[in-house]
Amino acid sequence: MTQNSLLETLHQAARSEVKSLDLSDLNLSELPPEIGDLSCLNALSLSGNQLRSLPAEFTKLKNLKILDIEWNRFEEFVPEIFEISGLRELYLGGNFLSEIPDRISNLKRLEKLFLNNNRIQEISQNLGKVSLLRELSLRSNQIAELPSDFYRLTRLRDLSLRQNKLREFPLEILQLENLHNLSLNQNEISSIPSKIAKLGNLRQFAIGGNQIEILPKQIGNLTLLKILYAYDNRLESIPREIGNLENLEELYLYNNQLREIPVSIARLTRLKVLSVSHNRLSELPEDIAALQDLRSLAVSDNEFQHFPPAIAHLKHLEELSIGGNAFLEFPRKILQLERLKSLALWDVSLGVLPSEITRLSDLEILNVRNTGLNDLPLELGRLQQLKYLYIDNNPLTALSDEVVEAGNEAILNDLRQRGMDLP
Length: 423
Description:
The chain has 423 residues and is mainly beta.
């Protein structure tokens, strides 16, 4: 946008007494003083520009409640912001900030603060004085510790410290008993304190991508929890108290060292998603057949030699990933899962696909990569919902290279054409 066009936009906005203005992604390197004439403005977006500073006249925007200046080139909290004491929401992600300064306490009415993707290392104690804060996102920074007064943010409901430099679970968080969503993914945390039970209002708890070896049994006290991310850690077992999480709907435990799943998991009757791929499991408890709300199950890349029979009882299952195990043939019990929409059986020695696969009439995705298939049953063409068929790295002889290279639609059309005369 040219300077003249910008000035005309600002003049028109001032005359019209607009309350919301979007100046994002215009490659602006500076704002003219006329921005201060927009005295009625409540919400302003300047994201995706090249701004390094704001004009002094910016402080005239006393009615501003929402300010988005993400993805610019600010190297510090611009001082003009602190003069707008009525701000409710401030978005400053994607800049080059290295600290949260003392003057943050000027913004006493702030309810949402997003500072993702900066270089923040230091956080002022004064952040604890922003007592109305409900959402705080500090994802992708360089934070190694929290200030001791952080516990004063008692109204916080959503806190993200994902992708930082935390080596220990910040004990200050344990005082924030109104937290609903806590993300500590991708840090260097090695343990979770037993006092985690104090966070009894948590609905979502994300601790994936750390170095945690043990989940404390007190995690079972988080009975309102709906989603638990504990993937990419060093877990060798799961406490039986996991079964106390009666409201849990999604559980992600992939990429750990688990050798067994506790029988108590069968008490999670609201569970819809269970992901335990990339572990060392060789069996599943029969009791998981009780998980009749389960829609998605991932158990790929484990040490199963036989298909876990309990899976066949999960009649509402829609997604099953079971590739990368030591099966020597197609697990025919899968055919009982007639609501399946996605089936991943890659890196398994199948030999053949049974013609009865047509029983999976809702199937939309079938992944049989690298499974030793010499041919595909023509009956596969009868699966009218099938859209994605992955057959790479198989010694198929009945399909021409030309058809295979043409992709999914050509392969399915070929199967349907050749299968027209089937009874």
